[in-house]
Every structure is written in structure tokens, then in C-alpha cells.
Design brief:
Mean pLDDT: 92
Strand order of the largest sheet: 6-7-8-3-9-10
Low-confidence stretches: none
Number of helices: 9
Number of domains: 2
Strand content: 15-25%
Helix content: 25-40%
Largest sheet: 6 strands, mixed
CATH topology of the largest domain: Rossmann fold
Bound molecules: adenosine-5'-triphosphate
Radius of gyration: 18 Å
Distance between the termini: 37 Å
Number of strands: 10
Length: 244
């Protein structure tokens, strides 16, 4: 792949005697939506952790982002370089308004000061189509879907080149998943490369242009999503995982 935005070579993460991510290598093209699948415990979140440095980098391997090596860099440096992520659990500040939550991310996370942080917050909330009449509501009073929008906006406030989403559809209803699908396409069309971990296969297959499947920490296969998902080894990994 010429000029990938992200390139991983031999990324490995061990916890004592457990190898959670094993010698993982892949590239992500600028502007694509790249899906990451795999059964529970296959290493997906650990892989995201290694890339963002939150809370740790890889034990071994090399991660190149925008042509620069980022493994071993501090999480805030990686974030400010343009690689932002969301987490499985919504990190909300219940007493802050939606607007304040995103502006705070701009101030502390992205290092934006004064009106720059406010402008970036507005831009991020607009990009996730966050209802303008709810921007002054306290985070605790927002719907599950609005909290998801807020989580994505808080990552987008740094105007990242790559947005990494860890199971964004969890807890959403079917119509909300459809709305999220449309939202991700809009964010991508605005020029943001997306990496997405998702157990809701309908969403993952709908948005991803390529799909990587992990099993027991290693890459099982990678390619065109509809082909990958029919691969007997992928079916077996999921059935084996479900049976375990
Ligand atoms: N901080 C940690 N310390 C020890 N083991 C860990 C740590 N984080 C993850 N693991 C282990 O690494 C393996 C991979 O976990 P990980 O959470 O990355 O899987 P996953 O594919 O994201 O799973 P899920 O789909 O359930 O979120 C698991 O065996 C897990 O218990």
C-alpha cells in the first residue's frame, strides 16, 4: 500500500505469561474505514491500547502514523499528533454540559486555548450532528445515543486524522445503530480515517471497507469484509469463542 496513514509491524503485547497481541502487522489507507473483528478476548482492545498508548504501548513492534514512529510515545503526544480514540465505557462528566465536556477535551486533551477550544467543540458537535438544543444539558441527562455522539465529538475535538472507535454500537437500539452508521460515514467523508472495533456485525460490515480479524491475539485474516466474514476459519473462531 503506497503511503499508508498507519502501519503496524510485529506489534506484540504481553502481560506476564499471557500474550494478548501476537506479532500483528497491517496497514490502513488514508481515508478508509477499517474494521477490526474477533471473538471476545481476541486482543482487539489491547491492540487499540498499544496504538494510542492508553494505558500502555506495545511490548514489541513498530507503529508508524503519518510517516512517524509513535510506539513508545506518551498518550497525549499521540492524541495531539492526530490519533484519537473512544473507549468501550462512556467516560462522562455527569455535572458538565455536553458543550463543556467537548470544550474541556479541546482544552486539556488537544491543548487548545480560549476561543480555539470553543470553536473546535462547536465544530465537533456539528460534525456528530449533536442537537443544538441539547448542548447545554448536563451529560447525565442525555440519552444513550447522545452520550455516544458526545464521546465521538470529544475525540474529534482534536481534529484527528484517525478516529478509533471501540464498540461504539454497544447499548444502542436498532434505529440508533442505523443513525450511527450514517454518522460514521459523514465523519469519514469529512476526511477522517476510521478504525472500528464492533461486535454488531451488521454495522461493521456496512461501514468497513476492509476488515481484519483477530483470534487469540494474532491476525487470522484481513480483506474485503464480505469475503472475510465467510472465511471458514473466521466462522470457526466465532463459533469456538461462543462455545468456550
Ligand atoms: N491490563 C491487562 N492485564 C492483563 N491481561 C489483560 C489486560 N488487558 C487485557 N488482558 C487480556 O488480554 C486478552 C485480550 O483482551 P482484550 O480486551 O484486548 O480482548 P478483546 O478482543 O478486546 O475482547 P472483547 O471483545 O471482549 O472486548 C484477554 O485475555 C484479556 O484478559
Amino acid at each position: 500500500m503506497p503511503d499508508p496513514i498507519l502501519n503496524l509491524q510485529g506489534v506484540t503485547k504481553t502481560f506476564g505469561g499471557l500474550t494478548a497481541v501476537k506479532d500483528v502487522s497491517f496497514s490502513v489507507a488514508r481515508g478508509e474505514i477499517f474494521g477490526v473483528a474477533g471473538p471476545n478476548g481476541s486482543g482487539k482492545s489491547t491492540l487499540f491500547n498499544c496504538m494510542t498508548g492508553i494505558p500502555f504501548g506495545p511490548t514489541r513492534g513498530e507503529i508508524m502514523f503519518n510517516g512517524k514512529r509513535i510506539d513508545g510515545q506518551r498518550p497525549h503526544a499521540i492524541f495531539r499528533a492526530g490519533l484519537a480514540r473512544t473507549f468501550q465505557k462512556d467516560a462522562e462528566f455527569p455535572d458538565l454540559t455536553a458543550w463543556e465536556t467537548v470544550a474541556l477535551g479541546g482544552h486539556y486533551g488537544a491543548g487548545l486555548r480560549g476561543s480555539m477550544s470553543l470553536d473546535a467543540a462547536e465544530e465537533a458537535l456539528d460534525l456528530v450532528q449533536f442537537d443544538t438544543s441539547r448542548r447545554d444539558m448536563k451529560t447525565a441527562d442525555l440519552s444513550v445515543y447522545a452520550k455516544k455522539q458526545l464521546m465521538i465529538a470529544s475525540a474529534l475535538v482534536a481534529r484527528p486524522d484517525i478516529l478509533m472507535l471501540d464498540e461504539p454500537a454497544s447499548g444502542l437500539t436498532r434505529p440508533e445503530i442505523t443513525a450511527l452508521d450514517e454518522l460514521l460515514i459523514k465523519v469519514n467523508e469529512a476526511g477522517v480515517t476510521i478504525l472500528i472495533i464492533e461486535h454488531v456485525l451488521g454495522l461493521l460490515l456496512s461501514v468497513s471497507q476492509r476488515l481484519l480479524v483477530l483470534n487469540n491475539g494474532a491476525v487470522l485474516t484481513e480483506g474485503e469484509p464480505q469475503e472475510v466474514i465467510r472465511d471458514p476459519r473466521v466462522v470457526e473462531a466465532y463459533i469456538g469463542g461462543a462455545a468456550a
